[in-house]
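Chapter review: from sequence to fold.
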Amino acid sequence: MARVAYQGTAGAYSHLACTQVFPEWEYLACDDFLSALDLVSGGFAERAMIPLENSTAGRVEEIYRLIPRTQLCVIAEHFEPVNHCLLALPGVSVEELKTVRSHPQALAQCHQRLLSMGLKAEAAVDTAMSARDLITRGDRTNAAIASSLAAELYGLDILQEQFQDVSGNTTRFLVFGREPEHSEYQSGIRYITSLLFSVRNMPAALYKALGGFATNGVNMAKLESYMDGGTMEASHFHLDIYGHPEQAHVRNALEELNYFASEVRILGSYPVHSYRKTTEFV
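The token string follows.
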């Protein structure tokens, strides 16, 4: 059976994303992101499901330091809506609750709901672990904020769904594999291409490096800067663009990027996920 690795405890939102994209696969929980990527690099898993950014919490900083250190390819993207659920031991009512445990980010996203219910927040390592610990603790006054998958795995009751203060909270994942996919352009498919590049320490370096995308009509979906290698001498960038390198306008833009930038590396091209609005310019 094919296997996909993810960071977190069984029932985490990364685990949930794996079940949506690879419903018939085996899921391998890892202690950290690097371990999940290493399982793929070493051939023990075929894919790794890695969160890159969240619409509420922003980017996952650690991933930008790890991606340049791996030779894996990005073969897909996935957007997973975050549905925080208030979980409790079987038979427990809301009125019995006094404390709620979860990851600090989940607690922050449910802050107003917790205040309105008079519940005390307690930080945990991750959402799924807080759900799993409900069973071992056996405290009827304690609840957890986690996914519906965590409730199913650990036999917990869902007291309230969509417990977050603001709707629309979504996490974007990248799927990594050992070999590139979608290397050949197919007409009728909308693509995103992810790449890394560095700029020289010179005036207007970034402006010149990115100018080719504007002149060739290539839309940028995402641009993130990060420092890497323990030096402050050069800036590194993660760039997502709409299009495929085999398309003429994308190819021309990448040629200009290679002329002005250094260490350009294409991570992969992959079909645009259905979550993205169909009206986006491509």
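Two observations follow directly from the output. The longest strand covers residues 261-271. The chain has a mean pLDDT of 92.
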